[in-house]
Design brief:
By secondary structure, this protein is an alpha/beta fold.
Length: 487
């Protein structure tokens, strides 16, 4: 118990200290997509976790330490108004799983971007919960399944066309990539260009195109599981929200959907088959969770935590919806969450976000290497322009798991600054070698001269496994790197 308290105290103290200094440094030096960089980095700092594990005497994942996650589905306003202050008062964080369309709506009982930014600033994680919250079993599965064809003019109509549709739900229709307006009858569609109506009893789609012509002349598409996965993340990222993980609506999941999700997310959480996740995590694409219903008692939840977190030392993800008096599916009383949160704190139980749990509970990859390849040679970059390079990480083991990648820079005065990028979590398949491009805009105030860019790959507990680097030169816009010319 003493060790668990010590670890939790150190984690909170170090995270808060490093976050404040890191935010100040990042805002005053390297510019660019700073909001995303801060959010993607602060909760995954190698130094913080290494210090915590060294002090409490653990190597690798902390033994004797299960984990608990407070996860809130659907993005209801009570998460910000009720759950946030309760957890914050007990030094705990949570995860909220939002539906993109509802974030963009003007609905008064939903979280909007300002709420999400505030939650993130207080250490919470935002996960995608899809674009429209459909049943994944009732819509097309892939982009290739979306195409709507074989249109015929609807009898008695001038502008309305129809086609058959082999699924039970139709969240939206796209015409050449533009979303059409949903209507409730054929007659409303006939009156409005750029609209559609779905007759779910007869599985027919009725469309009045934006240009009032035959839909066969256009790329007509429905929604799909693959689109719900990709577009929800892209849409939230475009709003400035750092999304890394997905939570399945209605718990409808299978192997094919999991394979698609690997292209977009670090992990996926859904229902069953077990209430908890043994550590280290064996399946990143099916994290199990336990749903809290209105009639679930606090004592029941405490029993789960005692069994799965304290005794079995596993990861328990508790899924809530509304909290307090807010209308929502299976709202849990505010007093219940207050009692539970206080009990969790008093027992020194580690409360983590999805991403924190993912990284703390993943298999360690002991042998991997990184390579940084600049896109231009020689690498002379004028101030104000972009330094671009490709980063690749190679897994030299038969294991699959996650590592962290981050970078720092040594300046002409031999001062090392960073993190410039990350650390971010990267999934490595057995003997895999993922790669991607990284771009930095050189600040206009950067001193001209010779720099070294350092990349680091490592894991929690093992520390830095490999370092890779390259040299580059910052010059002024006139091509001069003479420091004397700039005083």
């Amino acid at each position: 118990m003493h060790r668990r308290f010590l670890r939790q105290f150190l984690t909170r103290f170090l995270l808060q200290s490093v976050e404040k200094s890191f935010q100040s440094w990042l805002l005053s030096t390297w510019h660019g997509h700073w909001r995303m960089a801060v959010k993607m980095s602060l909760r995954t700092l190698l130094l913080v976790t290494l210090l915590v594990h060294v002090v409490v005497g653990h190597a690798g994942r902390a033994s004797g330490s299960g984990m608990l996650t407070y996860s809130f589905d659907d993005g209801l306003l009570s998460v910000h108004q009720v759950a946030l202050p309760i957890l914050q008062s007990h030094n705990q964080v949570g995860t909220v799983n939002v539906v993109l369309d509802e974030v963009l709506s003007n609905l008064p009982n939903r979280l909007h971007t300002d709420h999400l930014f505030d939650l993130e600033s207080k250490g919470w994680e935002i996960c995608s919960h899809s674009i429209t919250h459909p049943h994944f079993s009732k819509i097309p599965q892939t982009y290739g399944d979306e195409i709507l064809v074989e249109w015929t003019r609807t009898s008695g109509m001038s502008h309305t066309f129809q086609c058959s549709y082999g699924y039970d739900e139709l969240p939206f229709v796209l015409e050449d990539g533009q979303t059409l307006t949903s209507k409730t009858s054929i007659f409303e569609v006939e009156a409005l260009p750029g609209s559609y109506y779905f007759d779910n009893e007869n599985n027919l789609v009725y469309v009045h195109t934006m240009s009032q012509d035959d839909p066969s002349f256009h790329a007509m598409r429905s929604d799909s599981v693959e689109r719900e996965l990709e577009w929800s993340k892209l849409g939230l990222n475009d709003l400035g929200v750092a999304v890394q993980n997905f939570v399945v609506p209605y718990g409808e999941w299978n192997a094919d959907r999991a394979l698609s999700a690997r292209n977009y997310y670090n992990s996926v959480a859904c229902g069953g088959p077990t209430p908890n996740n043994p550590l280290p995590i064996s399946n990143l694409w099916h994290l199990c969770k336990r749903v809290i219903k209105t009639d679930t008692s606090v004592d029941e939840v405490k029993d789960w935590i005692e069994q799965y977190v304290l005794e079995d030392e596993t990861w328990l993800i508790l899924t809530f919806h509304a909290v307090g008096n807010e209308v929502g599916w299976d709202s849990w009383p505010e007093s219940n969450l207050e009692e539970l949160s206080a009990w969790v704190e008093s027992n020194g139980i580690m409360a983590v976000t999805h991403q924190q749990g993912l990284e703390l509970g993943s298999t360690l990859i002991p042998m991997c290497e990184c390579i940084l390849t600049p896109t231009t040679t020689p690498t002379e970059i004028p101030r104000g322009e972009a330094l671009v390079f490709q980063a690749a990480i190679t897994n030299n083991t038969d294991q699959s798991g996650r590592v962290l990648f981050g970078s720092k820079v040594t300046t002409p005065s031999l001062q090392q600054i960073g993190w410039i990028f990350g650390p971010v979590s990267v999934y490595l398949s057995s003997h895999g070698s993922p790669s991607g491009y990284v771009s930095h805009t050189i600040p206009t105030t950067a001193p001209p001269g010779h720099y070294t860019y350092h990349g680091y790959v490592g894991t929690y507990g093992l520390g830095v496994i490999d370092e890779c680097q390259f040299d580059f030169t910052v010059i002024d816009s006139g091509g001069n790197n003479c420091t004397a010319c700039h005083g």
